[in-house]
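Need fresh eyes. Consider my entry:
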Amino acid sequence: MLDALRNAWRLPDLRSKLLITGLILVIYQFGAHVPVVGVDKNALEQLLNSQSGGLIGTLNLLSGGAVRNFSVLAMGVYPYITASIIIQLLVPLIPRLEALQREPGGQEKIQRYTYFLAIPMAILQAIGQINIFGTLGGAAIIPGFGSNILLTVSVIATMTAGTMFAIWLGELITEQGIGNGLSIIIFSGIVAQAPTQLAQLMNSSTQPLFNLILFVVISLVSLVVIVFIYDGVRRIPVQYGKRVRGRKQYGGGSTHIPLKVNAVGMIPLIFAQSIITFPAIIVNLFPEGSVRDEITRTFGNHQGLAYWLTYFLMVVGFTFIYTDIMVAQQNLSENLQRQGGFIPGIRPGKRTQEYIHRVTRRITFIGAMFLGIIAIVPGIVDLINRLIFPTEAVSGSGANAAQVITGSGLIIVVGVVIDTMRQIEAQLVMRNYEGFMS
């Protein structure tokens, strides 16, 4: 990998792409330190000290530390990711969108619809994020938000513009940099916050050595498992029939369809994370009471058996649903039949599609369980800490080794590194270099 980076740096065009990518990431980090107007820094500091994990910790990690300053980039590209997931779920449900996707230039139109949907999603998330932060912290993060119309509109417009700016930076990396722009934006935020999160873990815990060792063990084991699952595929053999035209013979070759064990990456984690926070946001619309406090504490602070069990089931369920949708959109059986290919022993058409779905669901079970376990690792670590050190107030203290880099964060880091290095390797192969993937 180091040789590939060294060789890439020697090429002027690749060196320019790497420099452009680095410059854009620096600009993003500068934006992450520009606070939204009207933020009460004392209330924000108290909230971060008391609620360093859970929802706030996850949002802060994915936004590159922008939540800690409640900057204009506090939502990062999260609304765009949510909009993208919604559009992908709607495509097979709305015939017009499904037909549009197959038309020439249809993908560009759907991408444009995703940008449009990201704007209302950003507005909703800005309102929900400010309200739930105020509820969890016990004091308004932005005093006057909701009652002062001018301040409310200014804050919402600023945070929405910040999200669209982050999306634009990601697209610049895709077009002018080394690719995978939005993923690299999230990746840079996670990596930039890791040292701070680790220092906070060491300072907030009464057992720093134990938590440091636990963090190293969790990271190493997770990295090995993530890489193993990320590259895991089930290869379905495909045979192409021979065609004779005149004196020439075409086709007759054999290949395979690679079905990935985890074909959806960490999208189910993000989707489940978005949905599971809704109860804590919705209860703010109702009068105060014990039920409201319990729901806010469970789903807002990300603690308790009810939260972790719900989160696990949602991740597993979304993995199956999203994988089925992706396989249906690819139309593998139709494309095989059109190209004269078939799976040995399986009739073309409907039987082939059923066979692919059956195999996909079997291997998806492993991927779904993997994502579900990765998602609840912080809860498992919290339970271990409570059993070993019952006198230490773990919840809300930040003394959770699994919260330094969450499971979804590790999946993003590993996936982005592998995909980026493969892209660099492809560029080097085009220029007759031998890289680390060979």
Observations:
- The CA atoms of residues 187 and 413 lie 6 Å apart.
- Residues 205-405 form a domain with the Preprotein translocase SecY subunit fold (CATH 1.10.3370.10).
- The longest helix spans residues 106-137.
- The chain has 19 helices and five strands.
